[in-house]
Every structure is written in structure tokens, then in C-alpha cells.
Design goal:
With about 210 residues, the chain is of the alpha/beta class. It is about 50% helix and about 15% strand. The protein has a 7-stranded mixed beta sheet, sandwiched between helices.
């Protein structure tokens, strides 16, 4: 049987080593590369095309969500499991809507992580220990439409907001009206159940959605 080729992406050497030890000891799983930064991970995906990548959401350069979006945009074949310290519903929906195959807490038991890798390699999706087909993933996202994830434009607004930019500056940067920016900010706060821009910035930074250069 052909081995599942894996890429491990995490900037903490000890955690990365732990993942390697757990996964490489399993029959049918082969760790073919490791990376400590997001851009390096994308280069590995482009060159080696591993079957599955386990990617930390928080990385020193670009975060896991950005990696998922880039891989999807470039139609890279590697299926991505996002690993996170913040396992909440909004992030789960965001990850699966963007194209991640699974969203898993870093506190996951080793045995279940191995199962997740095998499910993802077989073309399935995993969230909250729920294993889904592509059709079931679509239905799952539709069922949570009332709590929908942020749109790509809202993510852009959130990224600029986190950099301390005013509504006027964001409008100029994105070539949209200031009122449209206000509407996006209102939608972001409603979807994330937050009260103000500062809370939104802290929320995004803590969860690795955006980084301050």
C-alpha cells in the first residue's frame, strides 16, 4: 500500500519533533519534510506535493489560514490540517470555508491525530471529531450559515484594522467607500460576537488570523 506523504509545519522544534515521532512510527505514514515558516511550507507543497500537511495556525511569517487560502488559489494538491491552541466554532467554520481539510486542537490525543491524518488522506474532512464527506462539509457549512465565517473582504478589513488603520485609510487601501468599510466592521463584530475594534484586533492576533510585521 502506498504511504501517505506528510509535511509538518510548526515553528516550535519540540512540538514539531513530537509530531514527527508520533506520525513516523505509524505504518503507512511517511514524513517527507518539515518547515518552521509558512512561506517555506508553501514551497515544499509546490515542489514535493505531499499528500497531507499539518500546519500550525500561528507561524512567524504567514499564518495557517493564509497558507490554506494560497494553496487553494494555486490549486495545490496537498490537503491541509490546521493545528491550533484556540479551538472555537468561528475558527472551525473559517478554516473549512477557506479550504482546510481539518481543524484540530493541539491538545488532541496522538491516536486521534493519526486517525485524522488517515481520514484527510482519504479525502474526508474532520472537525470536532466529526468526519465528513465533501457533500457533508458543504451541508455543515450551510447549517451554520447564521454563524458564517468572515468573507475574504471582511478578512482584509480585519487585517488592516488590526494594523491600527482608520476606516478612511482602509477605504483608500481597498479602493472602497468609507461607508462600506463601516458596514464590514459592523459585520465582523457581529459575527465574532465582539463589542469594538480593539477586541476584534486582539481576537485576530491571538488566533493567528493576522500578524503584525
Amino acid at each position: 500500500m502506498k504511504s501517505v506523504r506528510l509535511l509538518i509545519v510548526d515553528d516550535h522544534p519540540l512540538f514539531r519533533r513530537g509530531l514527527y515521532d508520533v506520525l513516523s512510527s505509524e505504518d503507512g505514514l511517511e514524513v517527507v519534510a518539515e518547515a518552521a515558516q509558512g512561506r517555506a511550507a508553501l514551497e515544499v507543497m509546490r515542489c514535493l506535493q505531499p499528500d497531507v500537511a499539518l500546519v500550525d495556525v500561528n507561524l512567524p511569517d504567514i499564518n495557517g489560514h493564509e497558507i490554506v487560502r494560497t494553496a487553494r488559489r494555486e490549486r495545490l494538491p496537498t490537503r491541509i490540517i490546521l493545528l491550533t491552541a484556540y479551538d472555537d466554532g468561528v475558527q472551525q467554520r473559517q478554516a473549512l470555508a477557506e479550504g482546510a481539510a481539518a481543524y484540530v486542537s493541539k491538545e488532541v490525543p496522538p491516536g486521534w491525530l493519526v486517525d485524522v491524518v488517515r481520514h484527510v488522506a482519504a479525502g474526508r474532512y474532520v472537525v470536532n471529531r466529526q468526519v465528513m464527506s465533501e457533500a457533508e462539509r458543504i451541508r455543515w457549512l450551510e447549517d451554520h450559515a447564521a454563524e458564517t465565517s468572515l468573507s475574504p473582504r471582511e478578512m482584509e478589513v480585519l487585517r488592516l484594522l488590526t494594523q491600527g488603520m482608520s476606516n478612511r485609510a482602509i477605504a483608500q487601501a481597498l479602493d472602497i467607500s468609507e461607508q462600506t468599510v463601516k458596514n464590514h466592521v459592523t459585520a465582523i463584530l457581529r459575527k465574532l460576537n465582539l463589542d469594538d475594534r480593539t477586541q476584534a484586533a486582539v481576537y485576530a492576533l491571538q488566533r493567528g488570523w493576522v500578524r503584525l510585521d
